[in-house]
From TrEMBL:
Transmembrane segments: none annotated. GO terms for molecular function: DNA-binding transcription factor activity; transcription cis-regulatory region binding. Keywords: DNA-binding, Transcription, Transcription regulation. It comes from Tepidibacter thalassicus DSM 15285. Residues 2-56 form the HTH lacI-type domain. The keyword Transcription regulation applies. It holds the Pfam family Peripla_BP_3. The keyword Transcription regulation applies. SUPFAM superfamilies: lambda repressor-like DNA-binding domains (SSF47413), Periplasmic binding protein-like I (SSF53822). This is Transcriptional regulator, LacI family. It comes from the Bacteria.
Amino acid sequence: MVTIKDVAKKAGVSISTVSRVINNSKPVSNEIRQRVLKIIKETGYVPNPLARSLVTKKSQLIGVIVPDISDFFMGELLNGIEEVGKIYDYDILLCNSYGEPDEELKYINLLRSKQVAGIIFVSWKIEEKHVQAIKNGNIPAVYISKNAREFDVYSVSIDNFEAAYEMTKYLIENGHKKIAFIKSSVQDSIMDSDRFKGYKKALEESNMQLDESLIKEGDATSESGYYLMNEIFEIKNIPDAVFATNDEVAVGVINCILDNGYKVPEDISVAGFNDIKLASIYRPSITTIKQPIYDMGAVSIRMIVKMINEEEIVDKNIYLPYKLIERQSVSKK
C-alpha cells in the first residue's frame, strides 16, 4: 500500500507539504502542487480518511438518520442524497432509528463522535432534544420532517396542507360525497397533522360534514391499510372514496376493498400520497400526490455542502413543488 511518505519521497517534498496539498490547508506553489498531484495519480495513493479528519477536524462523511430504511419513500430519498453526495466527494453513514426518539438521539450522538461533516435528519416527528443535541455539536444539519418548521432549523419539504387540500377537493369535484381519511403515521396526533387539516378544510368549504368513523390512523404499511379499511367495512359505513396519506397504505386499502367484493374505482375510489414507484405499476394504478422525493434528498445534501463551505443559503426552509397525478384508482361519480 502506497503511503503519504512514499508520495513525499517521489515528489521530493516533505510529508507536511503533501498533507497541505491533499487538505488544501496552507498555501503551496502551483508547481509543487501539480508535482504532488501527479505523483498521487501515478501511485494511486488514497489518503487515510481518519488521518485526514484529524488534520482538518472534519470528515468526508454525511450522517443520515432515517426512521425506516425499508420504506419506499426512504429508498428514493437516499438515492438523491447519495448520488449528489458522490458529486461532492462525500460518503454516507446511514442510521436506521425505527422511528424511536431515543434511538434518534443515540444516533445523533454517535454521528457527533464520528466527526461527520453534516447530518440529514429524517424523522416522523422532530423533538426539541434532537435539535439541541445537533446544535450542541455545532454540526450543519438539514431536517426532513412534517413538523420541522416548528423549529429554527434548515428544512426541505412540500406543503403538506395544500397537497392534501388539493387531493380532497379533487375527490369532491369528481362527485365523491363520503370520503374516508387514513393517516399513515401515529407519531403525532391525527388532528395536528397538516394533511388532515387540508382534508378537513376541503370538506368544510364544500359544506360536507366530517365523519369521525371514517378517520383512521396506523402504520405506513399495506398491512395497516388493509386492517384499517377492514375496520370501516365492519361498521358498515361504506365510503365512496378513501384518501390514504401513503401509497403503500393505499395498496392495502385497495386489496381490502377487492376482498370485500367491491371494485376500485367503480364502487370505491382510492387516492394515495408520495407517488412511489409502486403507485404507477400497481393495478389499478394509484391516483396520488407526487412528492419530489429524490429531489428532496438531493436538495438536502446540497444545502449541507453549502453550509460546510460557508456558502450563502437564500431560503432556510425550502418548499419543493408537488403534483397531483391522475391514474386509474379514482373515477367520476
